[in-house]
Amino acid sequence: AQSVTQLDSQVPVFEEAPVELRCNYSSSVSVYLFWYVQYPNQGLQLLLKYLSGSTLVKGINGFEAEFNKSQTSFHLRKPSVHISDTAEYFCAVSNTGKLIFGQGTTLQVKP
Amino acid sequence: EAGVAQSPRYKIIEKRQSVAFWCNPISGHATLYWYQQILGQGPKLLIQFQNNGVVDDSQLPKDRFSAERLKGVDSTLKIQPAKLEDSAVYLCASSLAGLNTEAFFGQGTRLTVV
Question: Which of A8, A92, B4, B85 has its CA 20 to 30 A from that of A77?
Answer without folding.
Answer: B4
